[in-house]
Write a structure and sequence with these properties.
eleven-stranded antiparallel β-sheet, 3 helices, 41% strand, globular
Length: 208
């Protein structure tokens, strides 16, 4: 017990680092990053991603649909899609967030794609499971805290029975997450790079 307490003090995470990370995220107004996602068969997605409260999302696709642009408006609860880019210059498609055309390869919805949703899913699994703090690590030259959350037998959150999560040591912003099913098969690996918290975004950045 004593070594675990000393580890929590040294990392300044407290007893519930996931809750602490989520509380930190709630203070963030906007962020930008490059999202790299890999599925169990090796399929890849690379997206320049931007978020602003209360839930605006912009995705500029790099892979597999290079040039496509997607913008989600939380007030209208609609997604505008430009398959060939250039928002504002050509008409876009207006779609429901549930439309398969704007879902990821893993079926994720754009209105549930932000870092807060990830942290809340980890927290849901933790509520009927166990959290382990695995110490310090490094990702792309950044110091991170490595955590693992495993659900009780039979308990999953969207198929995920175990999460591995790497939180930035300074900001507690996630830098990597891996989800596994109850058979220990990797479902998805997500790496977040080029993270900028509260960037100076143009006013019309999330407008068609």
């Amino acid at each position: 017990m004593l070594p675990e307490l000393l580890l929590m003090v040294s990392l300044n995470l407290g007893a519930d680092p996931v809750a602490t990370a989520l509380a930190r995220f709630e203070q963030v107004n906007a962020y930008q990053l490059t999202l790299h996602s890999q599925g169990p068969s090796g399929e890849e997605e690379v997206i320049h991603y931007a978020y602003r409260r209360p839930g605006f999302v912009r995705m500029d696709m790099v892979k597999p649909f290079r040039g496509a642009v997607l913008i989600y408006d939380p007030h209208a609860h609609e997604v505008r899609l430009w398959p060939f880019g250039s928002p504002g210059r050509r008409a876009g498609l207006t779609l429901s967030p549930n439309n398969r055309l704007v879902r990821s390869a893993r079926g994720h919805r754009v209105d549930e794609s932000d870092v807060g949703t990830l942290l809340r899913n980890v927290q849901r699994l933790q509520q009927q499971g166990e959290l382990r703090q695995l110490g310090e690590d490094a990702i792309d030259g950044h110091s991170v805290h490595h955590l693992e959350v495993e659900g009780e037998a039979g308990h999953t959150v969207e198929e995920v029975a175990r999460f591995e999560l790497w939180l930035d040591s300074e900001t507690l912003f996630p830098r990597k997450a891996v989800g596994y099913d109850r058979h220990e098969r990797m479902l998805e690996t997500v790496t977040l790079k080029d993270i900028v918290v509260d960037p100076d975004l143009p006013e019309d950045f999330f407008s068609p």
